[in-house]
Design a protein that fits this description.
Number of domains: 1
Shape: globular
Number of helices: 4
Number of strands: 4
CATH topology: TIM Barrel
CATH class: Alpha Beta
Length: 118
């Protein structure tokens, strides 16, 4: 079975002072998804944005959002990112003792779950 190739650029290199314009430009460029690399400063050393920043950008584009959750507790945070407008959440297998639990939780929230491996 062949799977389509989707273009999903990260907003991490964006100019955050113009975030709305930046995500609108990605839509104009024809991307399939927009990825938010969420880092909590614990699972990985960097700290990026929370759900409020993502929600504020949601009004600037109709392109689906996905959140790459580089966090220690993806189960606890999943609902906040779905509420912020993300339709796909990517969790790290290393952050989950029982990987089926966040998968089921994310699906129950109405989003698609995916797994990242280090």
């Amino acid at each position: 079975m062949t799977h389509p190739i989707l273009i999903s650029p990260s907003v991490l290199p964006a100019d955050f002072s113009r975030l709305g314009e930046e995500v609108a430009a990605l839509e104009q460029a024809g991307v399939d998804l927009i990825q938010w690399d969420v880092m909590d400063g614990q699972f990985v050393p960097n700290l990026t944005f929370g759900p409020d920043v993502i929600a504020s950008a949601r009004t600037h584009t109709s392109v689906p959002f996905e959140a790459h959750l580089m966090v220690l507790n993806p189960d606890e945070l999943a609902s906040r990112y779905v509420e912020a407008g993300c339709s796909r959440l990517i969790v790290h297998a290393e952050a989950c003792t029982h990987l089926h639990r966040p998968r089921d939780h994310i699906n129950d929230l109405g989003a698609t779950a995916a797994v990242a491996l280090n």
